[in-house]
Amino acid sequence: MSANQMDTRKGPFLSLRERNRRYAAIRARMKERGIGALIVGGSNLTYLSNGLPGELFGVLPAEEGEEFTSVLIWRYLVDIPPNTLREAQDWVSDYRGAKNPNVTIVERLKELKLENGTIAYAGRFGHSGYNFIMKQLPSLKIVDASDILDDIRTIKSDEEIALIDHANGLFNLAVEAIHHKARPGMLGREVVQIGLNAMFEGGADHESGFSLNFGPHPKQNPVLAWICLDRRIQEGDVATLTSHPHFRHYAGHTDQEIIFGTPSQLHLRMFDSVKKVHSAVVSSVRAGVTQRDLIEAYETACRDTGFQTCEHSQIHQYGIEVPEFPGPAFKTADTKGGKGLGTAGNFTLKSGMIYSISPVLIDGATEDLILGGTTMAVTDSGFRELGKRPVELLVAG
């Protein structure tokens, strides 16, 4: 990418130094295990390519002198000059269009003289692709090295944290726009459009979005969010917004409650309790504590409120994906057998982990559900808030 093009980028972006850090860390682990090349797909591919349009797979050789190869859908490259992608970004210079990506992968492995070696995959890699490569290269050994990427991606660099902070700031724009413009009588999809317009005007990636649930009895559920698109907001409805903005492929993630009209005493009391529970959980955040410690802080604080806990409480990591789970290097035993910990299990917090913490409270009589969240980067002494979205109950209309 030319200096002129580099100057046009707005907001934080990932540097070549960040790319080289990732490649070096992954290659060191590959060499320890005798892996000659790594095939990546899905978000692991985004992590290594910084996101190219139409990319299907990537191949990272273990040797530093060999380039990372990105395999793209063939039609993305047929009607543009060969250097178009090279001039538009600075992470990947070896990209190849493929009608059959498995053929292109085999060709790259042959170039690397790995026909009799050991390679690995991390992320999406289907059974048909595995079979094709093994038929073409029967002496090749293929192993799973997903744990390498899981470990390295768990801790975010300063550049990654800057992108996540920026993404969360985009959700703030959506919340402010909805707070000022959304009113009873509007369809849910009209309110969502207000928020999306604000995020896109702020520079959000096109895959950005957020869910919107609303009704007299607040909930937070993807199915209800879909149903709410064609419902009209009524006076007294409580809206729950859950953010998924993206900026340069990194996500923001938190929650916001907005009440249309005069809040009920129950909802005021519930949100006041949510703020206290949230404070109790985040005060426990620092490097060295465990996920179990955070869940117990949530459960203990809830007992003092008179409201119920919820398995849907969002106390988890994220980054390129929402959620993300820590690699095996961070896992630790749990005295309660994993109960209430979710898919990630128990693990130890380290500086550089990103957390969305949105404790949920449920009223036993009405089953109303209220939550309030923030997002943060774990530090050795505690945490640093990202996005600066305060835990507050907004009133609109």
How would you describe what is shown here?
There is one protein chain. With 397 residues, the chain is α+β, with helices and mostly antiparallel strands. The chain folds into two domains: 3-153, Creatinase/prolidase N-terminal domain (Creatine Amidinohydrolase, Chain A, domain 1, 3-Layer(aba) Sandwich), CATH 3.40.350.10; 158-396, Creatinase/methionine aminopeptidase superfamily (Creatine Amidinohydrolase), CATH 3.90.230.10. Helices cover 35% and strands 21% of the residues. The chain contains twelve helices and 18 strands. Strands 4-3-2-1-5-6 form a six-stranded mixed sheet, with helices on both faces. The protein has a four-stranded mixed sheet with strand order 7-8-11-18. A four-stranded antiparallel sheet has the order 12-13-16-17. It is globular. Mean pLDDT is 95; it is low at 2-6.
Could you write a compact summary of the structure shown?
By secondary structure, this protein is α+β, with helices and mostly antiparallel strands. It is built from twelve helices and 18 strands.
**Total strand count, please?**
18
Strand order of the largest sheet: 4-3-2-1-5-6
Number of structural units classed as domains = 2
Helix content: 25-40%
CATH superfamily of the largest domain: Creatinase/methionine aminopeptidase superfamily
Distance between the termini: 48 Å
Using the 3D structure, state the CATH architecture of the largest domain: Alpha-Beta Complex
Overall SS class? alpha+beta
CATH topology of the largest domain: Creatine Amidinohydrolase
What is the gyration radius calculated from CA atoms?
A: 23 Å
CATH class of the largest domain equals: Alpha Beta
